[in-house]
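Repro:
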Amino acid sequence: MHEDKPRSVSSDFSSMLQQRPLARFCLVYLAGVAAYIIPSQGTADPVLLLRIGAMALATAILIILVPLARRGGRLTPDSLQSWLRGPVVIAAVFLLAASAAAWQSAIPSSDVSRLASVHLITLEGEAASEPHRSPNGTSVNIRCFSAATGRTRYRVTGAVQIWQPRPLFRSRSPRPHLRWPEPGESVGVTGVLSGLDPQSRPFEAGLLHSRIYSVIQIGKGGGLFVQPGQRETLQVFCLRARDALMAGLQSLPDRERQTLAGMLFHEKSGIDPGILDDLQRTGTIHIVATAGLHVGIFLGTCLMILSFALPRRGAVVISMTLLPAYAVACGGWPAVTRATTLAELFLLAWLLGRLSDAATCLCLVAAGMAALNPFSILDPGFQFTFLTVGVILLTLPLLSAFERERGTKSWFRRGARHLAEISALSFAAQAASWPLTVYYFGVVSFVGVFANLLIVPLLMIILPLALAASLCWHVSAALAVIPLTLLDHLLDLLLGTAHILARVPFACLTLGPISWPPVAIYYLVLLLLAGWVRLRQARGEHGRGVSEAGESGQIGQ
C-alpha cells in the first residue's frame, strides 16, 4: 500500500502556493513591481526594464530546460504543456508588473515638480489633506493649478507638500501666525520648491505613495495665503461625525482626550510628547497610529451593536457602509485604507457565500494597491502591514498544539491556552515588525512583547467603551457618567502601564541606521524557519497516522 511521504520545506511552501493560484500570481506581480521600483526609486529607467525582461525570459527558459535535460531531451506535447503552464505565465506576469510600474512611475511633463529649483516660486491650488503637525514642523498637501516664477506663469498639474519646519532656536521676534488650510480651501504659497530623494531620506517614500514628487518649504521670503472653499459633501459629513463623537468625550481630562483622539482617528498632534516617548520605548506606539487593529475593533463594535436590532446579514451590510466613512474620518490614512479594503473583501466574500481565505485576500489587496500605485511598496506603512500580517498567518498553523486543549473543561487550562495563543501572536507580530522598526527608526524595544500583552487588551476595551460613552452622552449626559468614569480610569491605567515599562532599565535600545540586505535575509530566514517547523509538525502527524493505522489493522486482525 502506498504511503504519503512528508515533504520538504520547499515542497511544502510550493504546494501552499499551488493551492492558492490567485495568491501566487499576486505575489509574482508584487515581485515584478518591487524589481523595478526599488532599484529605480521612482525614476523612469528603460535600461532597467530591459534587464528585468531579460532576467524573466532567462528564468523561464532555464525552468523549462532543466526538466527537459533530465528526460534526455525528449519533448512531448503533455510535458511541454505542463512546463509552459507555470514558468512562462509567471515570467509574463513578472514582466507585465515591471512594465506597468515603469509606465506609472513616469512623472508627467506638466507636473509641478519639473519646476523644482533653488529660487522662490508661487503656487496656487487646493488643499487636499488636513494639516499634519509634528514635533519637527507642520505640513499639508495641495493640488496645484498654476505656478509663477518671476513674471512667468505656468499651468501645472500634480501635488506638492507645503512644509514649515519648526525652528531649532527660539527667535526674539515672534513668528507670524499662519492659518493652515482645510481640505477644499484655495491656497496660495510662496517658497522654495525642491524634489524628493528617497535614498537619503526614506520617509519621503510616503510622499511618492501619494504621487507627490516635490516639497515647497516656507521660510524667509515665503508665505501662505488661504481662501475659504467648499468641502466635498461626504468628507464634511464624516468630519462632522468625528467632531460629534469627540464632543461626547469632552468631559475627559485634556491629556486623556487627546490620546484617545490619536487612538480613534490618528490625531497625534495634541498628544503629550512624554506619552509618545513612553509608547515608543515600549514598542506600543501603534496604538495611536490608527491601522488594522483599530479597524478590526471598530468593525467588531459595529457588528455587536447592530446585531441587537438587525439580522446578521443586515448588520454586515451596514457595517460595510460604515467602514469607508471611518476611513474618511481618519483623514484617508493609508494604513486605515488598507485595513478597510481587506475587511470589505472578507465581508463581501461572506455575503456571497464564498470561503474567504486570509492569505489570498492579503495578497490580492497588496497586489491591487501596487497595481493602482506602484510607489505603495516604498511606503513603510505598507511594508509594516503586509509583512506583519503575513508572518502572523504563517504562525497560525503553528498553534495547532493548542487545539488539543480545546476539549478540556478546566478553567485554568483554558485560560492558560488563551494566554499562550495571545503571547505567541504578540511575539510573532514583534518578530515581524522589529527589523523594519530598526531600519526606519533605529529603535528596538526589549519589553515590546510584554507591553503589548498588557496594553493591547486594554485598547480593545477602551475603544468600544469610548464609542458607547459618546453615544450615551448624546442621548443623556447623566447616562454617560458611568462609562466616562470607567473610560478615564482605563486610560490612566494604560498610560501608567506604558510609563512604568518605559522606565525599566534597558527597555529600549537606539541603534544607528542599517542597510536593507540584513532585513531581507532576516525575513528569508524567518520564512524558512516557519516552513521547517510546519514540516516537523507534518512529519509528526504523519507518524501518528501511520501508527494509528497499524494499531487499527492489528485490532481488525
